[in-house]
Amino acid sequence: SGTAGTYSEIHSDSLYGTHYSSNVGIFTQFDKKCKKFVFSLGARAEYFKVDTAQTKFNIPLGKDTLQSPLYPVFRTGVNYHLFEYTHLRASFGQGYRFPSIAEKYIKTSVNGLTVLPNPEVQPETGWSTEFGIKQSLKINNWKGFIDVAAIWMEYKNMIEFNFDYYFPPGLTNPGFFDYINYFGAKSINVGRTRITGFEFTIAGSGKIGPIEMNVLSGYTYTNPINTNRDTNYIKTGTDDSTGILKYRYKHNAKMDIEFEYKKVSIGFSVRYNSFMQNIDKRFEYPLLYDQIPTYPIYILPGLKDYRKEHNKGDFVVDARIAVQASKQAKVSVVCNNLLNAEYSSRPGDVQAPRNFALQVLVKF
């Protein structure tokens, strides 16, 4: 068992001056091996405070309620050695996240976009569970493993950045410049959310004649949705029918393969992200689309057409070649984005085209 604590103070672009934050955690963990089983049980009590806002946990005592400043979370897991090279596992864990100073109070601008404070944002709670199987393999001089896992996560009061108009109280008839000045991103609670999916990983190493080969690959599928279909959140997205959360990839795949012969190695890295189905509507439509639909003010002009054209996902390949010149020196040439794909990781963030880098590593 143990304790952990942090204390921070911030003086920059805060809307309300100086703010203070503190966090203390007390935790304990128990592990026990019993024949083919390995059991794990953990507990943690979290205390957060940002200015006067602090952790609150209600404990019912008959007709009364005791309010504790410590929020408890628990986790448990079990691993079962099914066969000599086969392991089954299952785990369950709770989570608790208190809003940060930035999410509650910071007002700033990033690349022309305003980040607004939200002192009323509430803590996020949730739980996650996983069921998996890992199978080790050995065929002649090849060895590796296959791992498959199913995941399920539930969140309450999930915190997300949301782009919209956020007018100050009392402004009932916003004018043209009010729509410009009070547009930005704010941390809000989007209600209940659920993320389900599975992961598949395969890794191995071996020889093809005199050539050594190493492979690591994986695929992840997730279905992140807003289960209570909060209309204030959903209506601000480009996908307002499925409930999918913004800025998420449903499909993600990666593979790294390397061949090594004596002092020379050649490697390739491949990654794929599916089309980002839901983003903030304000990035695709005119800024004032629900007030003055014909007024063509765009945050990112051309983004809607770009997303229509690039709607199949992103496939990116990197390559590298290295020579071990001596025991102390290694020279590598790396080519990023070998196929010169045009892609972006988020709206307006187009990634670099094909580029090369020379790396020399010397050990003393």
Mind describing the biggest β-sheet?
A: 15 strands, antiparallel
Cα-atom radius of gyration? 25 Å
What structural category characterises the helix and strand content? Answer: mainly beta
Number of helices, where a helix is a run of at least 4 consecutive DSSP H or I residues: 4
H/E element order? EEEEEEEEHEEEEEHEEEHEEHEEE
Give the overall shape, derived from the CA principal axes.
globular
Strand content: over 45%
User: pLDDT average, as an integer?
Assistant: 88
Secondary structure tally: strands: 21
Task: State the distance separating the first and last CA atoms.
Answer: 40 Å
Helix content: under 10%
Identify low-pLDDT runs.
1-14
Describe the protein.
The chain has four helices and 21 strands. It is 6% helix and 57% strand. The relative contact order is 0.08. The strands form three sheets. It has a 15-stranded antiparallel β-sheet that branches. The longest helix is centred in the C-terminal third of the chain and has 7 residues, at 303-309. The protein has 364 residues and is mainly beta. The protein has helices at residues 101-105, 176-181, 231-234, 303-309; strands at residues 2-10, 19-34, 37-50, 53-54, 57-61, 64-68, 71-83, 86-97, 108-110, 113-116, 124-139, 142-156, 159-165, 183-189, 193-208, 211-226, 251-261, 264-273, 314-323, 329-336, 355-362.
